[in-house]
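Pasting as-is:
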Amino acid sequence: MKNRIITISREFGSGGRTIGKKVAENLGIPCYDRELIHKIAQESGFAEEYIQDAGEYSPGGFLASALSNRSFGPTNEDYLWEIQWKIITELAEKESCVIVGRCADYILRDKADCLTAFIHASMDYRADRIVRVYGEREVSPQERLRDKDKRRAAYHRFYTDMKWGDAKNYQITLDSGKLGIEQCVKILQMLY
């Protein structure tokens, strides 16, 4: 496969999606983020809202393990994981692109020429950003960040058996709070 792929994993509120979109735009290549959810919905028949939620909720956990319907076969989440794997692989085979989230770093680890990045920032920076950019106000911003990060980490661990956010699992980790969004974009472009 000759295409070059940038995968971006990120903490909620760190600006990873924004960074991915700007890098792709500057490089003249597509960025897949919410577009992946749409493609998975088309192929699976599930609603986009369900897929978005299922993509951040692992089917694991003590209660789920004890009461799992896995003994009766694959779960909906397993089915969606297979479709997600197929779509991400096909996109990487088709063209150079940026893929945000959805464990693309793991899915493409042996299949593509990838630059794997993890975007993170301090709790204060992210809390301020989700209020300012997304208008998040239903619960405390810190509580929302902890919940989203916990769910992303559990999903990533469940399907990849890797620790989400661990620097050794990525080629580069960037602190968007310290570096700024634009500097993160420039760094990833330079490494592309």
